[in-house]
Amino acid sequence: TGAVVLSLDQLRAACSPHGDEADQAATPDAVRALHTAITEHLAARRSVLVDSTNAVRAHRLALLDLARPFRALSAALVLWPPLRECLDRNDQRDASPGECGFPRRVPPETITLMHDQITRDLPTLHTEGWDRITMLEDAAR
């Protein structure tokens, strides 16, 4: 059987009163829904794939904390394109705010910060407790 894929963007859209994945105000509810769904699927002994940036170490550690009681194998798949590619892709997103008030395009400084966080954390990612780490630096090509 395949893994259940849980996307933070899709959960954000589901939690948004506007049905919009760009609705950042829905993020806290979406994260709670994500953690609940992870726990439920792991309790049912299903494999779970979490589709989320997780640039912040504390967010990654929270996922590991959810997996630990179920003795679930944890794997980090690091998609790490160059910063310029991330910025170029973001420039292709719609810059006009949706009904929720947020645009799909992310501020460039946010992308730069997240890329910097991931880059900074890469040398110590192995110390976080992942059972397996796979790096895909050139995944988009």
Strand and helix layout:
Elements: E1 4-7, H1 8-15, H2 27-43, E2 48-51, H3 57-67, E3 75-79, H4 83-91, H5 108-121, E4 132-136
Parallel strand pairs: 1-2, 3-4
Walkthrough of the structure:
There is one protein chain. By secondary structure, the chain is α/β, with parallel strands linked by helices. The chain is 42% helix and 13% strand. The chain has helices at residues 8-15, 27-43, 57-67, 83-91, 108-121; strands at residues 4-7, 48-51, 75-79, 132-136. The strands form two sheets. Strands 1-2 form a two-stranded parallel ribbon. The protein has a two-stranded parallel ribbon with strand order 3-4. Helix 1 crosses helix 2 (27-43) and helix 4 runs antiparallel to helix 5. The radius of gyration is 16 Å and the shape is globular. It starts with a strand and ends in a 5-residue tail after the last strand.
Sum up the structure in keywords:
two-stranded parallel sheet; alpha/beta; single chain; 141 residues
Summarize the structure.
The chain has 141 residues and is of the alpha/beta class. It contains five helices and four strands. Helices cover 42% and strands 13% of the residues.
